[in-house]
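Take a careful look at the sequence and tokenised backbone pasted below. I need to know what the token row says about the fold.
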Amino acid sequence: MSFDLETFVLARTAQLARGQPVYLCGLARSGTTLLLRLLNQSGEFASLSFRDMPFVMSPNVWAWLSGRWQRHVQGRERIHGDDVLVDFDSPEAFEEVFWRTFDSRLEQDLECYGAATPDEVVLREFTRYRCLVEAVVQRRTGEARRRRYLSKNNNNLMRLQTLCSEPDATCWCCSGNRSRRHDLSSACMSGLALTQTTSRGTT
């Protein structure tokens, strides 16, 4: 319902997804949050943030409704106790709400969570969803160049092949040692490994 309302309201103004999306995934505590933040700081990417909660399926409508109450707060350490600070504008992995909304198989087959390939209808809706995320980030930041969709979602491991079938998509699978501190220096010391996967293969 909220997704349909959002796409109806923005039907004439939202641009087509630019392409060149980047998908980050990996096991828990493998460094995906660090990589997400480094890429987001480049100013080229569009990613959901805590400010889009709780209506992540209609981020533009929610931004308009909540605009007068939005405020900035000092970052606080997240619940993991790893010295990573979060605030309302911190990028985070919320797109799994989309997959659980549109792909009913995720609810039916919990033993093989998300392993089924998303069908064409779901992928077409996901492209529309990417447009909505890109639109709200551009309006919020005033930076028109933020048009590359950036996703951090460890569950993307289950649909990696499908996501990387898009010719210009890039998937990074992170693996690294468990670490108490996930700032840049400790990530380097822990031997963080990145595997970049595209439709042309893995490097």
